[in-house]
Design a protein that fits this description.
single chain; alpha+beta; seven-stranded antiparallel beta sheet; 4 helices; 10 strands
Length: about 210
């Protein structure tokens, strides 16, 4: 069964952090916290049929990264967390937040990085278990609450023959995302992002 094109995948609005935030996420993605413990600063969703995942992460503003370089900084951190064998940045874009993030304050800074990493799941150390993953990463710097909001969408495009993902997806079929369609889908997710309760950041208002 072929995987639907990103542009045709239905989405629904998901409450995040107990309803303090919300964002539209593909309907097929399940809340990982229902299966295992997730850190309180993260929201993680996964689609078992495509081995894709989406993570929303609230981080302290990285003071050792300039606003312009913060996206690259967090992408490098993600590669380190993934124990990536290889990591490349394919493109980077500074966003016009008035259009890209219409529900957030006008003084936020945001960028999108499209990258490619070679990673292995769990403790699968064999080179044949390495998967090639396209990563769409958005860095949203919110200065008034000294927070870097990082949103990433991982889409595997090549599965290693010994990877557990290959077994899990047997008979489903893996369709490499078309770069522009995948990025368009990611942009639409970002455009839906809302913050309803600024108390999430320890603040009483959006400033």
């Amino acid at each position: 069964m072929p995987v639907p094109s990103p542009s045709t995948i239905p989405t629904c609005r998901k409450d995040l952090y107990g309803g303090a935030m919300s964002m539209s996420i593909p309907q097929s993605f399940a809340d990982v916290s229902m299966l295992r413990e997730v850190p309180s600063n993260q929201e993680v969703f996964a689609d078992q049929l495509s081995d894709q995942s989406i993570m929303i992460e609230l981080l302290e503003l990285a003071s050792d990264a300039t606003t312009e370089n913060a996206g690259k900084y967090h992408y490098a951190q993600l590669a380190q967390d993934n124990e990536a064998v290889t990591s490349d940045i394919l493109s980077e874009e500074q966003l016009d937040t008035s259009n890209a993030l219409p529900f957030l304050p006008s003084n936020v800074h945001a960028s999108i990085i499209v990258g490619r990493q070679t990673v292995a799941k769990f403790n699968e150390s064999s080179p044949d278990a390495h998967n090639v993953v396209i990563i769409y990463l958005a860095l949203i710097r919110i200065p008034q609450v000294t927070t870097d909001l990082v949103i990433s969408h991982n889409q595997p495009i090549v599965l290693g023959s010994a990877s557990s993902s290959t077994t899990a997806l047997a008979g489903v079929g893996l369709q490499a995302p078309v770069a522009e369609e995948g990025l368009d889908s990611f942009r639409k997710m970002l455009q839906s992002l809302k913050i309803m309760d600024w108390g999430l950041f320890g603040e009483t208002g959006s400033g």
